[in-house]
Amino acid sequence: MKQKVSIGGQAVIEGVMMRGPKYIATAVREPGGTIAIDKSALSSVADKYPLLKKPMIRGVVALVESLVYGLKSLSYSAQVAGEEGEELSDKEIAMTMVFALVLGIGLFVILPTYAAKAIHTSISDPILLNLLEGMLRLVIFFAYIFGISRMRDIQRVFEYHGAEHKTIFAYEAGVELTAENIRPYSRLHPRCGTNFLLIVMIVSIVLFAFLGWPNLLERIVSRVILLPVVAGIAYEIIRFAGRSEKRWVAIAITPGLWLQNLTTREPSDDQIEVAVAALTAVNPANYLSSETKVDDHA
Predict the structure, then answer these.
(1) Is-contact 232 60, C-beta < 8 A?
(2) Could you give the CA distance from residue 274 to residue 278 in angstroms, rounded to a whole number?
(3) Backbone torsion region of residue 47, taken as left when φ is above 0, otherwise alpha when ψ lies between -120 and 50, otherwise beta
(4) Number of CB atoms found within 10 A of residue 222's CB
(5) Among residues 45, 104, 160, 204, which is most buried (max CB within 10 A)?
């Protein structure tokens, strides 16, 4: 059986974004009940500069582009769902990304490394200190995920997250994309962004363990500088895990799947219908057959 082209996605406000090899589509349930779809062609800077497709580098490029497309999709969904007046401009998206980056560095870099400073009085081994700092970072990460998972509005988004995963599983299995066929599939997917974030946390613990224990400012700067390296390694790991069928790989990514029990919820058939609309819009089988027909008539 021919392997399916990989499709990824993201839950948005009252909808789902799906990203295929050539197109990206965001399907959103409007207040009146109809499904609005925004579809556009994908454009990657890596297509212009092949060097950016090399291992380690491609992960950083993919992460930045995913953040940009994700924010655009969130902005569109908020507008369609009636929660925002207009879509974000490119400048507003850039400012949002900078704010999110600063907030992330403050919460997951500065806070744990500053908190670990208090332990320095009783522990002097730099490797052990860095490992303890990494564990603090992991605790903060889990607390953050648990906290947002208790918010009612976020739980609604997590239901669409579950619909996204189930629909992608059904697509990969080659079954007809109906709610009845999709419903039995798992809402926990190995290529999920939640898995990626957990891998980022674990990779950072291992990598930062051997940086010594300089002063607070040097520790913060060294961790920020190495973030692209951490992201690159994590991307290669999750890319490998998503394609491997080895038993030990399945066991290794199990904690990330467990974590998805917090970031996904069981979706309704209406939510699955929205996910199907988004995936159908980017499914290569649909637009390739259409393009073939156009070529035949040329």
Answers:
(1) yes
(2) 6
(3) alpha
(4) 15
(5) 160
In the block, tokens 């009146």 appear at 32
The DSSP call for residue 50 is G
Residues 6+ positions from 232 with CB-CB distance below 8 Å: 55, 56, 57, 58, 59, 60
**How many Cα atoms within 13 Å fall on the side-chain side of residue 3?**
4
Kindly give the confidence (pLDDT) of every residue in the chain, 298 residues in length, as a single tens digit, with 9 standing for 90 and above. Answer: 445 678 889 999 999 999 998 999 999 999 999 999 999 998 888 888 889 889 889 989 988 888 889 889 988 998 898 766 566 677 777 788 788 888 888 888 888 888 887 776 677 788 988 999 999 999 999 999 999 999 888 999 999 999 999 999 999 999 999 999 999 999 998 888 888 889 999 999 999 998 888 888 898 899 999 999 999 999 998 888 877 778 888 888 888 889 999 999 999 999 999 999 999 999 988 765 444 333 332 2
Beta bridge mates, 19: 8, 24
Q: Which residues of 149-158 are buried (b: 16+ CB within 10 A; e: fewer)?
A: eeeeebeebb
How far lies 30's CA from each of 1, 27, 83, 152, 267, in Å? Answer: 38, 9, 11, 19, 17
* Contact between 13 and 79 (Cβ < 8 Å): no
Neighbour-count burial for 34-64, b at 16+ CB within 10 Å, e otherwise: ebbebeeeeeeebeeeeeeeeeebbbbbbbe
Q: Per the structure block, which two tokens stand in for 229?
A: 């390296």
